[in-house]
Amino acid sequence: xxTIHPISSFYRRGDNFNLSVSRERSIVVCLHDKMLxxxxxxxxxxRCLGNYELIQAYHCGKEELSDKSVKLLFDLDNRVELVDxxxxxxxxxxxSAEMAKTFKxxxxxxxxxxxxxxxxxxxxxxxxxxxxDPGVVRSLDGYVQTGTTFFYDRVRPGKRFLTGGxxxxxxxxxLLHKFDYAKxxxxxxxxxxxxxxxxxxFKGMSIHEMxxxxxxxxxxxxGKKVMNxxxxxxxxxxxxxxxxxxxxxxxxxxxxxxxxxxSFSPWGVSVVDSMPNEDMKNHPxxxxxSILQFIPVxxxxxxxxxxxxxxxxxxxxxxxxxxxxxxxxxxxxxFNPVPTHMTPRQQRRQTNKTAxxxxxxxxxxLVGMGATRLPAYFSQHLLRRRSHFFSLAMGVLGLLQHxxxxx
Length: 407
Hints:
The chain has three domains: 11-139, Spore Coat Polysaccharide Biosynthesis Protein SpsA, Chain A; 149-258, no CATH class; 270-374, no CATH class. 28% of the residues lie in helices and 15% in strands.
């Protein structure tokens, strides 16, 4: 069956684009020139892992990607299309030109989710380090049952974002009670799910719930109510109240308010150790590096656990926050050359501050949650990803054709 691809000046494809690639599934990334090598090395890693889905590279305005960047993208992969979502929506009056400018950051991610015509969407951050074809997640229970898979963020106490004060109430509580359900044809009105009332955020114990470095949604099963509420969050609510660190909480909250079932990984977030921070030397039960997520399958008795991905520029880029910020960066955010340990897989829980009562940790640290050695395959995958990143940065493009890993 012939695939029909959108024809518009806001969609761009290379001369060698594979017109037979399906639009049933796609991986969505958001790109601009400064993140090009990170994004392209992610695309190469996905192909090395055996994923050949359509990749939609979203951007906000044509100026975000130079002609040189566009040529490199199209030369290196024939299943990539570029989508200028801001120009498309502003040209149709869906958002104003002024509002479009507010999406030149992480808020473009939910805008891309709303915009794409693809059914099974996987949203990835370009600094994800993927260790297994992420398409496998769609075959697991959570996605099969609900058409979604979300991943948890760290449990962090405080009075901001979801737990912040909003007209005398905690934001999340007020949102649930004051939301205009009728406007979005949600017939029940206030009716929080069992999942929500058991979250750390609802109990006022964490300012974060969800991490959005990997988000999977079946848009057909989600339906228009979810997408319309998602759009309300990113075009109205975020300007009224800062409910989230970036876009993170937008996705699950849209499902919750629409009263459409959704699924989180059964496992809490983990992290790797930070070598610059000397985690294993100074506090080996409390790791502070980049986040790590396990395959979201409920198998607590398994002898071995499988890592799905990590997220963090500090594992790839020697100057993860830019060369001008090296002297200002926290030690655990510096380039992390050879992590050796990870926080063990466990259900989401609070950190154990009693393990180090007199020490002040950075917010990224999972204090008192333990450490176990990373599997050998982690270093092999990380080396391949770094090789592709540096080959792009140095212009040695022949290396990109190689998927070999070394022991």
